[in-house]
Amino acid sequence: MPISESLEQTFRRGAPLVWAHGAGADGAALLGWGEVLRVEARGPERISELSAAFRDVVTERGLPPSTIAFATATFADDSAAPSVLIVPAVIGHWQDGELTLRENVPGAALEIPEPHVNGVERQLTFNAGELTRSAYRAAVERAVQLIDAGEADKIVLARDLHVRADRPLDVATLLTQLSAANPNAWTFHVDGMVGASPEMLTEVNEGSVHSRVLAGSAPVRGTAALDDAAAEALMSSGKDRVEHEYAARSVSARLAPIAKVRVSAPGLVRLPTIMHLATDIAGVLNEPLSALDVVAHVHPSAAVCGTPTARAAELISALEGFDRGRYAGPVGWVDAAGNGEFAIALRCGQLDADGEGIRLFAGGGIVTGSQPESELAETAQKFLPMQNALLG
């Protein structure tokens, strides 16, 4: 029996696992409660290990094809943070003002919580992260030097911010704000990783595969004339087109051995605070592979790492000097039939263990001609969706 309630009320049912897209009447969400299975993995094969563990439990328990798992994986092979796959007890589908529930694993029924009430204001403090603004400028300058010296073609550099509150953060309000303000993004909450990403890394549906690559950006100011001029400048920018080409080529090249793909011409995606060059890559898989298996083939793309990938990853570690954790890693869901959706964890943050803080991340692609001050401004623009949602 469907439950009539707002999406915010659904989010307030115990901070569930969340995968949502759209807003208002056009919004829909996939949610999960409870943990029937939790798998953690680390190292170069972490994503494949999560996928194999899910297949094993599906086979051993004879679970139906509709069984769903949520997953979030780290950006780097050597991250100290675990990559995690969670099979919830209960699955919820929210759409058109109604929440429909079903058992995800036979015999693992769970009473989902009643919506809790939010009535407490929180005082937030924003602090510099491990890579300060001045240190980020220096890292960009050094990255350009390395690129000009032939060490790499593109290096994606990120910085972080720490946000602390005087009491546990209200995750339901954060999710509500994110989904409402970013209808063209995928809002997620998996194991404390929360955000609204505009970039679909891998979508698999009955053997079809799709990826949307975003790279090259300009701010959205909210004034038609200014934004139209910025869009025209972005589409004609040699620097941004080169950065974008590296990213699109990296995904299509990694999909080519496992699928017959076609690549669209670059277009423009406008979001509330930023616009991006975008390329859609779509095709048909050569053999049955799950969405998580495909993720293992394509992560990390040049959009969040660089070109060539292995060298860019080494330089990122040296220049940033901190562990990204699950930032810029894949996050999403997969079912036992192999269908699923995984975004790149962008415009996001990782909640602290005590629930009273969150670490935000934002980055940008560095190529020949990148300017430290401009790149710093781009990261500030990319922090806005999470900052605005936190401030409510």
Oligomer status: single chain
Strand coverage percent: 25-35%
Mean pLDDT: 93
Give the CATH superfamily. Answer: Anthranilate synthase
Distance between the termini: 33 Å
Secondary structure elements and their pairing?
Blueprint: E1 3-4, H1 7-11, E2 17-21, E3 28-33, E4 37-41, H2 46-61, E5 68-72, E6 83-87, E7 90-95, E8 98-103, E9 124-128, H3 133-148, E10 154-165, H4 171-181, E11 186-190, E12 193-197, E13 200-205, E14 208-219, H5 224-236, H6 238-255, E15 259-263, E16 267-270, E17 274-285, H7 291-298, E18 306-307, H8 309-320, E19 330-335, E20 340-344, E21 348-351, E22 357-366, H9 372-391
Antiparallel strand pairs: 1-8, 2-3, 2-11, 3-7, 4-6, 5-6, 5-19, 7-8, 9-10, 10-18, 10-22, 11-12, 12-21, 13-14, 13-20, 14-17, 15-17, 16-17, 19-20, 21-22
Helix pairs in contact: 2-7, 3-9, 4-9
Q: Could you please describe the fold and organization of this structure?
A:
The protein has a single domain, classed as 4-Layer Sandwich (Anthranilate synthase). 30% of the residues lie in helices and 34% in strands. The chain contains 9 helices and 22 strands. Strands 1, 2, 3, 7, 8, 9, 10, 11, 12, 18, 21 and 22 form a 12-stranded antiparallel sheet that branches. Strands 4, 5, 6, 13, 14, 15, 16, 17, 19 and 20 form a 10-stranded antiparallel sheet that branches. It is globular. The two termini are 33 Å apart.
Could you give a short description of this structure?
This protein has 392 residues and is of the alpha+beta class. It has helices spanning 7-11, 46-61, 133-148, 171-181, 224-236, 238-255, 291-298, 309-320, 372-391, and strands spanning 3-4, 17-21, 28-33, 37-41, 68-72, 83-87, 90-95, 98-103, 124-128, 154-165, 186-190, 193-197, 200-205, 208-219, 259-263, 267-270, 274-285, 306-307, 330-335, 340-344, 348-351, 357-366. It has one domain: Anthranilate synthase, CATH 3.60.120.10.
